[in-house]
Amino acid sequence: MPMPWESVLPNLLAGDAPHAAELPMDNDAFAGFYSRSARPLWAYLARVSGDPALADDLMQESYVRFLCAAHPALIALEGEVAARRYLFRIATNLMRDHWRRPHSTSIEELPEEFFAASASSEQADSQAVLGPALAQMRPLDRQLLWLAHAEGYSHREIAEVTGLASASIRLLLFRARRKIAKLLQNQSQPQMLVDKRDETSRSESARALSQRSQS
Amino acid sequence: MTLRSCIHEKEVAGLLARGQYPQACTPELRTHVSSCHSCADLVLVTRAFQTARANTAPTGNLPSPGLLWWRAQLRRRNAAVERIGKPILGAQIFALAVGLVFAIGFAATQAKHGLRWLTWFDGISLDGISFDGLSRPSQLPQASALHLDALHPAALLSSSGGLLVLIPVLATVVLLGGVAVYFASEKSNENEPR
Fold first, then answer.
1. Is B181 a residue whose pLDDT tops 90?
2. A-contacting residues in B 58-117 (Cβ below 8 Å)
3. Which long-range contacts (CB under 8 A, 24 or more apart) does A114-120 make?
4. How far apart are CA A141 and CA A156, in angstroms?
5. What confidence tier does A146 reach under pLDDT thresholds 50, 70, 90?
6. Residue among B56, B80, B88 whose CB faces A46 most closely
7. Which of B2, B7, B3 is CA-nearest to residue B33?
8. Domain extents for chain A?
9. Which tens digits make up the pLDDT trace of A162-199?
10. What is the pLDDT of residues A159-169, one digit of tens each?
């Protein structure tokens, strides 16, 4: 029996519509879930997309869509792990949609952080190590690698997040891991050579100093 | 490319996921990792990604959860209002379309019969009514008195070609059509997956 609209509209306008009340979590529960999941999600989006500003936008949109679309039963039955997976799935789809859309980025649109120096040396190190290697990977490979190795998801969970078949995940991940491992090794070899050169030059100068002091 | 995975890979992956590699690793496993290409790749890649995750996660500027909660509620409410407004709009469009069809049909029929119903107005003119301040009884020789017979339905029917029957029928069809469309679209909206 359809609900007469006259009876729904006043409730809607008053703010307690039946659909609006069906948000999957209450405000406090969402705040807790958000504090546990927001940073990993942001890291995933920022590293896979390579754009922190885009990661900000996509993360906000992911949470809003999650709250609008997730069914309360999903969280009640399967708990936070399933909710988190669902959130990553929304974010993955949003990122895919963004890549599909034809667009051009002008220099004015780039965020300031893009040009700014990194905040800490650790960050810079990890960015320097993984950044160039990730940049050479396909977007799908980046997603798979991050979900498997940074988030620790199983093949079945990655299949749920990406919408691919579980069997193909295994092969794709195997190839992607082999490729990025090669890239990381190639990067670390010249770095090791530089480090070794620095070390020898340091020891030579120390030796020269000690000889000078002795004479 | 052949897909060959090492039998120790699961064990190494478990240790890496728990953050226990290489501390909780047996010497045999450590020796194996240094000699196995697949396990070495796994360790290298997982460590790089775990470090990147640990360093990247704290750098994001996160909005407050309350703001996102409010935005979600607003969007959900707007979607609900839109869902309710859609069948009403459909009913209105349908009613308008039916009304227009009938009006055009009626106009076409009347045009074919030379607008006979206009003569009906001549029959209900009052005696001595002034037009623009001028009494023109001479110009209205046949309308010198109110003919009550002219208001009788039978007379109207005969003079206007069923005008008085047509209008209520038309109004009822439009109204019922609109209501039917409203309920039909309401039902289809209910069946739609959210």
1. no
2. 58-63, 65-66, 68-69, 71-73, 75-77, 79-81, 83-84, 87-88
3. A114/A51, A114/A52, A114/A53, A119/B59, A120/B55
4. 16
5. very high
6. B56
7. B7
8. 1-116, 122-215
9. 999 988 999 999 999 999 999 988 877 665 555 556 66
10. 999 999 988 99
Fold for the domain defined by A122-215:
Arc Repressor Mutant, subunit A (1.10.10)
Beta bridge partners of B130: B135
The interface residues of chain B toward chain A in range 19-48, judged by CB-CB distance below 8 A, are 40-42, 44-46, 48
* Token pair for B36: 């196995």
What would the pLDDT profile of A66-118 be if each residue is shown by its tens digit? 998 877 777 777 788 888 999 999 999 999 999 887 765 554 554 545 444 44
Out of B52, B65, B77, whose CB is closest to A47? B52
**Could you tell me which of A145, A113, A124 has the C-alpha nearest to residue A48?**
A145
CA-based nearest residue in chain B for residue A131? B52
CB A29 within 8 A of CB B66: no
User: Among residues A55, A26, A50, A53, which one has the least CA distance to residue A38?
Assistant: A55
Q: Please, what sign has the CA dihedral across residues B95, B96, B99, B105? A: negative
Q: Within 10 Å of residue B56's Cβ, how many Cβ atoms?
A: 24
Residue keyed to tokens 């040396």? A121
Query: Which value does ipTM take for this structure?
Result: 0.70
Characterize the bridge pairing of strands B130-131 and B134-135.
antiparallel
